[in-house]
Design a protein that fits this description.
Blueprint (H helix, E strand, L loop, with lengths): L4 E5 L6 E9 L3 H9 L10 E6 L5 E10 L10 E8 L1 H13 L3 E3 L4 H8 L5 H12 L3 H11 L2 H25 L7 H22 L4 H7 L1 E7 L5 H9 L17 E7 L2 E7 L9 H16 L2 E7 L18 E6 L18 E2 L8 H17 L9 H17 L5 H19 L5 H8 L7
Parallel strand pairs: 1-6, 7-9, 7-10, 10-11, 11-12
Antiparallel strand pairs: 1-2, 2-5, 3-4, 4-5, 8-9
Helix pairs in contact: 4-5, 6-7, 6-13, 7-12, 12-13
The structure holds guanosine-5'-triphosphate and magnesium ion.
Length: 443
């Protein structure tokens, strides 16, 4: 049964020079014919049309482009209407389309869902497309493109096919017990499975670089009260995002700002000053600060250079390989050399005068680049992929246990299925809803 014909605004709502309304499904072309009163345009040719409501009034003049099935984004007949991007024009056309027989507004992600169903792209590629639309920095865009163009799907598909191959061998061994299949073949099979398992565990040990790139690298500013954490956040973000005051214990909640550092997305967080807290609210703030410190990719541990007892500061306990030591208030510094006994040299800044801020940004940038350049290019960009790959590795592991061949087969089948769910190579209705509901309408 043919599906409904859907339509949606494909460009952002609001004022723009041009807005595009996209229709997909069998009724797209008849609807265009009714609205324009013209014979349908040749596929992929722009046709200048006057769009009129059935009642006779002109809605707008614009361009219509027809993409004939299967050569369209969704694989169905698609019509794009390029109209003037005024709110009233858009609303009127959407209303008129809604009143047409067999047409209805698209659900979020429905265009991409249809493209998937019609084999235009697999699930990972669809997710890549969603990421491309959401990409805010150049590195995010590059990763989304790689995913959208199928590079990551290909790597998963390769693993899946190798599992299926192992499965086929094992099934042959079970089905033809009389054929002399030497023991060495079984040993080789186990070897292949072990290799696959290590390919997957290798991919999982990527420090979540792919996910980090999608979601942003987490950098947290930590330190004693009043050392200038909020001032530093503002200096790095170049805006007054957090409240600064001479009173110790000003910041309670975590304040986040989003930044683009060298093309990488960063979520920079300011936290409550670390001390044995005065009241319950501050105590909760300190708890949140420490929790965030535990999850952060990079910690900026801040010390007050105007204070004599820097080496007793609570931040010292947080210094580890993911931490950068930063000494603030260099403009009123009272101690100069060797105030800190760190292995790494601290970076001296003044959040007030801006001195050293560029140097600190450079150091952060180097850390980010080191984080992303370590190891091979990641091909996991969502926790969904990670969970399924972990499943697959578990099943492969179980298939290697001392169990009857039939059970080994079952484990291999489950492993292949888990990977298939990542790209959508098998029936996965339940995962489809999860994936496409994250899309916005018109995609
Ligand atoms: N001279 C000087 N003063 C600074 C500098 N950075 C911050 N301050 C001052 O130090 C005081 C505390 O600054 P905040 O940024 O609020 O410090 P904080 O670490 O966020 O403090 P809490 O939120 O209470 O933990 C304010 O009076 C700032 O103006 C600096 O580089 N030089
Ligand atoms: Mg603060």
């Amino acid at each position: 049964m043919p599906s409904d014909t859907i339509f949606a605004l494909a460009t952002p709502p609001g004022k723009s020079g041009v807005a595009i309304i996209r229709l997909s499904g069998q009724q797209s072309l008849p609807a265009l014919r009714r609205l324009s009163g013209l014979a349908p345009p040749a596929p992929r040719m722009a046709q200048y049309v006057t769009l009129c409501a059935q009642a006779g009034g002109i809605i707008d003049r614009g361009l219509a482009i027809y993409f004939k099935s299967p050569h369209s984004f969704t694989g169905e007949d698609v019509v794009e209407l390029h109209i003037h991007g005024g709110r009233a024009v858009i609303k009127e056309l959407l209303d008129v389309l809604g009143a047409e027989d067999g047409l209805r507004p698209a659900e979020p992600g429905e265009f991409s869902h249809r493209a998937f169903v019609n084999g235009k792209m697999d699930l990972m590629e669809a997710e890549g497309l969603a990421d491309l639309v959401d990409a805010e920095t150049s590195a995010q865009k590059t990763q989304a493109m790689r995913q959208m163009q199928g590079e990551m799907s290909a790597r998963h598909e390769d693993i899946r096919q190798r599992i299926v191959q192992a499965l086929a061998y094992l099934e042959a061994y079970i089905d033809f017990p009389d054929e002399e299949i030497p023991e060495s073949v079984l040993a080789q099979l186990a070897g292949n499975i072990k290799t696959l398992q290590s390919v997957i565990t290798g991919a999982l040990a990527d420090h979540k670089r792919g996910e980090r790139l999608r979601e942003g690298i987490s950098i947290v500013i930590l330190g004693a009260p009043n050392v200038g954490k909020s001032s530093l956040l503002n200096a790095l973000a170049k805006r007054e995002a957090a409240i600064v005051s001479a009173q110790a214990g000003t910041t309670r909640d975590i304040i986040e700002v989003h930044m683009d550092i060298a093309g990488y997305p960063v979520v920079l967080a300011d936290t409550a000053g670390l001390r044995a807290a005065g009241d319950a609210i501050e105590e909760e703030g300190v708890r949140r600060a420490l929790a965030r410190a535990g999850e952060a990719d990079i910690k900026l541990v801040l010390f007050d250079g105007s204070q004599p007892n820097v080496s007793d500061a609570p931040g010292l306990a947080l210094m580890d390989e993911s931490a950068l030591a930063v000494v603030n208030k260099s403009d009123i510094m009272i101690l100069h050399d060797n105030i800190l006994t760190f292995k790494q040299k601290p970076i001296y800044v003044s959040a007030k005068t801006g001195q050293g801020i560029e140097l600190l940004l450079k150091a952060i940038e180097e850390n980010i680049l080191a984080f992303f350049s370590g190891g091979s290019t990641p091909f996991i960009t969502r926790s969904r992929h990670r969970a399924l790959l972990t499943d697959a590795a578990d099943h492969l592991g179980r298939s290697l246990a001392d169990i009857p061949p039939e059970l080994k087969c079952e484990e291999l089948r489950l492993a292949a299925q888990a990977i298939g769910k990542i790209t959508g190579k098998i029936a996965v209705d339940d995962v489809l809803d999860v994936v496409f509901s994250q899309f916005c309408i018109g995609k």
